[in-house]
Task: inverse folding
């Protein structure tokens, strides 16, 4: 059984991560959700725990087992890291090598496995030069960016920034893991 770390950040699209997790579990993947505190404001860790049957990590200091350091051990046994949705904030943190929460710490400890990221944010934030440069940095480092789609966004804008459709994300996960 392949293990996937599913990162969830503070975007309204976080509710779709439950659908992603549920579908991945149905496809026999071992899914471990890791949420930023902002992500946990949009969808509860309990929801992801119920769907994945695994502990959900939010706090960087959440170390339940004294014999392992979670932000190192989980990436060591993972077959993929998927961050969906990914805010401009987490994209900037990853591009800058910042590890100030559980998810960004796990990202830095993740090596030699497929890494996918699905941006979700306001159009102006997505199109901002800093965000685009950060995404290019991630691509140069081996990340696959799942482009957002054009839609009416939560802020009322219509434009590119809505997270890719769940089916598109699941298709890319399957392609990367076969």
Result:
């Amino acid at each position: 059984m392949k293990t996937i770390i599913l990162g969830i950040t503070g975007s309204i699209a976080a509710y779709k991560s439950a659908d992603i997790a549920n579908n991945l579990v149905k496809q026999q993947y071992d899914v471990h959700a890791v949420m930023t505190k902002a992500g946990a404001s949009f969808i509860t860790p309990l929801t992801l725990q119920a769907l994945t049957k695994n502990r959900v990590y939010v706090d960087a200091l959440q170390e339940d087992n004294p014999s392992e350091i979670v932000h190192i051990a989980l990436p060591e046994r993972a077959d993929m890291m998927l961050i969906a949705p990914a805010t401009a904030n987490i994209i900037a943190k990853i591009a800058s090598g910042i590890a100030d929460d559980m998810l960004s710490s796990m990202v830095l400890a993740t090596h030699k496995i497929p890494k996918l990221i699905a941006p979700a944010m306001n159009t102006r934030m997505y199109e901002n030069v800093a965000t685009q440069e950060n995404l290019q940095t991630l691509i140069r480092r081996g990340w696959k960016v799942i482009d957002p789609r054009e839609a009416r966004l939560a802020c009322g804008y219509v434009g590119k920034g809505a997270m890719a459709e769940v089916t598109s994300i699941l298709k890319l996960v399957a392609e990367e893991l076969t």
Notes: The longest strand covers residues 80-86. The radius of gyration is 15 Å. The first helix runs from residue 15 to 26. The mean pLDDT is 93.
